[in-house]
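Anyone able to model this chain together with 2'-O-acetyl adenosine-5-diphosphoribose?
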Amino acid sequence: MKVLTTIDDEVSAWAQRARRVAVLTGAGISAESGVPTFREVQTGLWERFSAEDLATEEAFHLDPARVWTWYRWRQSLIREVAPNPGHTAIAQWQRHLTEAGGRLDVITQNVDDLHERAGAEVLAHLHGSIFAFHCTACSAPAELPEPDYDGFTPPEQTESPPSCPVCGEGMVRPSVVWFGEMLPMDAFDAAAEAVRAAELIVVAGTSGIVQPAASLPLLGLERGTPLVEVNPEATELSEAMDVCLRGPSGQLLPQLLHAATWGGQPGRTTTA
Ligand code: OAD
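re: yes, here you go
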């Protein structure tokens, strides 16, 4: 495993040569847009809770208003922020490969829509979407108006989730995957197929803690596909990588795009 702070000739050549690329992203890719990652300390009404305390079915049943308001407020925040250069680089790389007859598959654990707003097509939202809702009892999808929060200021009061307009029995919940819940199988299978077919796998902005998403890039080991991590910190996945690019995705993904499009790299510094 090689640790770099900027891409080198080897990584540049991988990016330039690969006709099929799989990119797995996590909360870190949206951090530079202003969306807090899951391991950051919570604020306001939620300062005593970790994201893991809130993202479970038990938490929702114990205190539906607390969990519901947290998601609705995060939804407001995501609406107010914009994609950053990391999202844009992925979208441009995807377009470049598509035009050249290749393919770049975006697989994300994020429930935001910043990849799409940057112009990328997402193959798999492994953990669902914060903009979709369904009933806890009958699973009917629910349409809701946009929440009325200031995304940058945590609300001072909670609001209860609406009851299901279809069955009247259940509560409306966000269509995100909570801890302990199954991932959507079609999304996971499509992601696994894309990783197996890839000639280069990029893992950006994920701590690699949450399974089964974190195991996906390791499928590339079967074929010896180059694995590149983009993250300012070492993660659970770092040891399995060929190269760890240590830095923010908003700086490093544009370097990969540059290499894929034009070849070469803007500079190089090997730290380990
Ligand atoms: P985490 O919050 O666990 O990890 C965020 C990662 O992003 C960390 O490894 C940071 O070092 C990294 N990071 C921070 N800033 C970055 C930057 N500018 N550029 C690149 N990386 C940066 O987020 P996930 O790995 O996505 O699941 O978490 C996985 C899942 O756990 C989430 O989808 C969610 C969560 O609880 C559910 O809600 C089920």
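The domain at 2-34+83-127+183-262 is CATH 3.40.50.1220 (Rossmann fold).
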